[in-house]
Specification:
With 190 residues, the protein is mainly beta. The protein has a single domain, classed as Jelly Rolls (Sandwich), CATH 2.60.120. Helix content is 9%, strand content 39%. The chain contains one helix and twelve strands; from the N terminus they run αββββββββββββ. The strands form three sheets. It has a five-stranded antiparallel beta sheet with strand order 4-1-12-6-9, with no helix packed on it. Strands 3, 5, 7, 8 and 10 form a five-stranded antiparallel beta sheet that branches. It is elongated. The two termini are 16 Å apart.
């Protein structure tokens, strides 16, 4: 069920059952049925990519998707707005041990969000992470979060880039994110 157009009431009008049903249905949609999803990387422990180039992050699994915003069969890098409105969108990638001993040496991990595969609408970058006690490398993550006005059928996508020399990004990190790459979106208003 989609959000239905609000009625402009006329003085002296007597509401019908159908009019009340629209109000009820819209309140339900706003509280529990508004489009939202959370998608995750499902390719095992490692995300393979080309270094020093922007790589689409594909999401082959879903934690939830109540509005067909994502497909695990095709165009898995996309989260699609099925209704027009303002959406919150976030993406996080995580990795374990950013040091030369783990094969993931480098000085930069970058993440960007694109609208319809072309326009960058959010970006973030992280550098090497070390602890305060002895300089040991720690697990790390980079996240982006944005609120954006979407037309129906517009889509979000995320891309990753690094300058490391390893052949993959190990997502077996012990970070608060469970070592996953994930993305989520939620409709927040018209």
């Amino acid at each position: 069920m989609a959000y239905q157009t609000d009625r402009t009431w006329v003085s002296g009008e007597h509401p019908t059952n159908a009019m009340f049903n629209v109000i009820r249905d819209n309140l339900k949609w706003l509280s529990t049925d508004k489009p939202m999803c959370r998608v995750t990387f499902a390719g095992g422990d490692n995300l393979n990519f080309t270094h020093s180039a922007w790589n689409d992050i594909v999401f082959g699994a879903e934690s939830f998707d109540n509005a067909a915003m994502h497909s695990i069969a095709s165009a898995t890098e996309r989260v699609i707005a099925q209704a027009a409105g303002k959406f919150l969108y976030g993406c996080t990638i995580s990795w374990s041990r950013w040091d030369s001993g783990s094969g993931t040496a480098g000085t930069r991990r970058s993440l960007q969000t694109l609208l319809n595969g072309a326009t960058v609408i959010a970006a973030n970058e992280g550098g090497p992470i070390t602890d305060d006690s002895g300089g040991a490398a720690l697990d790390g993550h980079v996240s982006v979060l944005t609120c954006y006005s979407m037309a129906a059928a517009d889509y979000f996508g995320s891309q990753f880039q690094d300058n490391a020399t390893a052949s993959n990004l190990n997502s077996g990190a012990t970070s608060p994110f469970g070592g996953q790459h994930y993305s989520w979106a939620m409709w927040v208003g018209i």
